[in-house]
Amino acid sequence: RRFSIGLTGGIGSGKTTVADMFAARGASLVDTDLIAHQLTAPGGAAIAQIHAQFGASFLTAEGAMDRARMREYVFSEAGAKARLEAILHPLIRIETERAAQAATGAYLIFVVPLLVESRGWRERVSRVLVVDCAEQTQVRRVMSRSGLPEAQVRAIMAAQATREQRLAAADDVIDNDGDAQSLAPQVDRLHAHYLSLAAQAAA
Ligand code: ATP
């Protein structure tokens, strides 16, 4: 199996920003959020099962999963989250492995927002990379990007692993409390490290 990194971090921590910087240096990205979105977009592989299990009222006129409706439902209805995940997780797994097979970069980075919270990911990757910042920084970034009220951002964060739990799972950490410029030297250093580990793994 190829050398791979599982990149994670809380909402608004900077996962996408950091992942794009590794990609610019030659890593291949497999974004599990993007895959989940594609599965639930019009014509996506999960749509037929969502229709069968939840009904047409959970689809938009275009035939995508109605994300707002589904989010509200899984928050309020016991068991609904597990039913949705039972549909999505096997499909995400298949598509993720397909994307990994097709990747041609120097090494692989799986971007997995809920890596620490989900089963199986830590065993799947060679190393876990956590993008870390203070909770107050997360709140500020998400509020300014999305316009969500602070209470709602805090509620999303409360449903995720804590900063401490994430750091405990980390092999490597990128500190993203500073400005964007402070990321480049950290990414450069880790990229060099990952290239050498990937070369060792391939030897
Ligand atoms: P999500 O979990 O919500 O998808 P994410 O972890 O992928 O978020 P990003 O989308 O990379 O995080 O960053 C969140 C927001 O904060 C973006 O608007 C991004 O431009 C901004 N941001 C990220 N890092 C920094 C930084 N070091 N300085 C200033 N702004 C930043």
UniProtKB/TrEMBL annotation:
<keyword id="KW-0173">Coenzyme A biosynthesis</keyword>
<keyword id="KW-0547">Nucleotide-binding</keyword>
<keyword id="KW-0067">ATP-binding</keyword>
<comment type="function">
    <text>Catalyzes the phosphorylation of the 3'-hydroxyl group of dephosphocoenzyme A to form coenzyme A.</text>
</comment>
<comment type="similarity">
    <text>Belongs to the CoaE family.</text>
</comment>
<keyword id="KW-0418">Kinase</keyword>
<dbReference type="Pfam" id="PF01121">
    <property type="entry name" value="CoaE"/>
</dbReference>
<dbReference type="InterPro" id="IPR001977">
    <property type="entry name" value="Depp_CoAkinase"/>
</dbReference>
<dbReference type="GO" id="GO:0016301">
    <property type="term" value="F:kinase activity"/>
</dbReference>
<protein>
    <recommendedName>
        <fullName>Dephospho-CoA kinase</fullName>
        <ecNumber>2.7.1.24</ecNumber>
    </recommendedName>
</protein>
<keyword id="KW-0963">Cytoplasm</keyword>
<feature type="binding site">
    <location>
        <begin position="12"/>
        <end position="17"/>
    </location>
    <ligand>
        <name>ATP</name>
    </ligand>
</feature>
<dbReference type="InterPro" id="IPR027417">
    <property type="entry name" value="P-loop_NTPase"/>
</dbReference>
<comment type="pathway">
    <text>Cofactor biosynthesis; coenzyme A biosynthesis; CoA from (R)-pantothenate: step 5/5.</text>
</comment>
<keyword id="KW-0808">Transferase</keyword>
